[in-house]
Design brief:
The protein is an alpha/beta fold and 303 residues long. It has 9 helices and 13 strands. It has a 7-stranded parallel sheet with strand order 3-2-1-4-5-6-11, sandwiched between helices. The protein binds nicotinamide-adenine-dinucleotide (NAD).
Length: 303
């Protein structure tokens, strides 16, 4: 069986991915993270390993002893990127390049998790296809694009085996909006605790929201993909505004309290990602927003 290691395996996407890879049954899966996952959340099928991504010797050993390396670590998000960008350019970008170099050296596959929601920047034509010229407007998206670009250069010049997954806005079990990402998570949890929900701008920003399990299963479908593409949007292909989300959640949790605050300069107006490319490989159904929100609320309520 092939060995898969998930860097950032105890995070939101990492934990869900580890669970789905373990369920898939075709891989030996290791979760690598610098935090320790509480015993009660550990899965018996997953190997847990503690370590720091920002360490060359560790990366060398990881690339040497695994077949598929999933890179799901990022030190910044759009909201904090204006404060922390220098740390991320100096560390995340540099060690991502080191990792790519090592994966190339040992002829291993590198799956890099990029951000479909930020890498493209302002675009007028929706849904956005992968070949669109990217022009991110914040440092988080730019960090992703710099990393992507370097990986694609390795693929062209050194025949690096890379997959770039531009995941849309993910939501679902394991998310924690207090870390700064996750509008749906915030609306549902604040709604359940009867707290006020803050919305940046007029609530008309449109995003492509995907249920975390669907995103993880799409990712797994790329593990052994051997086709002409190396860059993929992982999305539903449907756009919803924050006001649409509030309306949908309020069908299950009435009486939501909302407050509209100043628009953030890091947010673009609209992102809807074309998913034809991944749908050519991944043939399972994808939850729409109504199904996903219902499922996530039921999960949180233990239904
Ligand atoms: N959440 C989203 O909506 C979304 C959408 C698109 C792309 N992404 C990307 O997917 C990836 C995972 O996102 P997430 O939401 O699961 O983030 P997360 O913060 O929940 O998880 C990241 C994990 O990485 C670990 N980590 C951070 N620095 C580390 C280091 N130096 N060494 C070892 N472990 C380290 C953290 O402890 C954490 O468990 C990121 O690259 C993110 O940019 C996220």
């Amino acid at each position: 069986m092939k060995k898969v290691i998930i860097l950032g395996g105890n995070g939101f996407i990492g934990r869900n991915l580890a669970k789905e890879v373990a369920k898939n049954g075709r891989y030996i899966v290791t979760s690598f993270d610098w935090t320790e996952l509480d015993e009660m959340y550990r899965l018996p099928e997953v190997i847990y390993r503690k370590g720091n991504f920002f360490d060359i010797n560790t990366l060398d050993e990881i690339a040497c002893s695994n077949d598929i390396i999933v890179h799901a670590i990022c030190s910044i998000n759009p909201g904090n990127s204006n404060e922390k960008y220098l740390f991320a350019y100096k560390n995340d970008l540099l060690y991502t390049i080191e990792l790519c170099y090592l994966c190339t050296k040992y002829k291993k596959r590198l799956v890099f998790i990029s951000s479909g929601g930020t890498v493209y920047g302002y675009q007028t034509r929706m849904p956005i296809v992968e070949d669109t010229l990217s022009s991110p407007i914040n440092h988080y998206g730019n960090l992703k694009l710099c990393s992507e670009s370097t990986l694609r250069t390795f693929a062209l010049q050194q025949k690096a085996d890379i997959i770039i997954a531009r995941i849309a806005n993910v939501y679902g079990p394991g998310q924690d909006f207090t870390k700064g990402v996750g509008f749906i998570d915030a609306v549902i949890k604040r709604g359940l605790s009867k707290d006020e929900i803050s919305v940046f701008g007029d609530g008309e920003n449109v995003r492509d929201y995907i249920y975390v399990r669907d995103a993880c299963k799409m990712l797994i479908s790329l593990f052994d993909y051997r086709g002409q593409f190396n860059t993929f949007n992982l999305s539903t292909g449907e756009g919803k505004s924050q006001n649409d989300i509030i309306k949908e959640v309020s069908k299950h949790i009435p009486g939501l309290k909302t407050r509209y605050i100043e628009h953030r300069s890091v947010d673009v107006k609209e992102i809807i990602l074309d998913n034809s490319r991944i749908k050519g490989i991944y043939h399972n159904s994808i939850l729409n927003i109504e199904e996903g929100i219902k499922k996530y609320i039921e999960y949180l309520q233990g239904v």
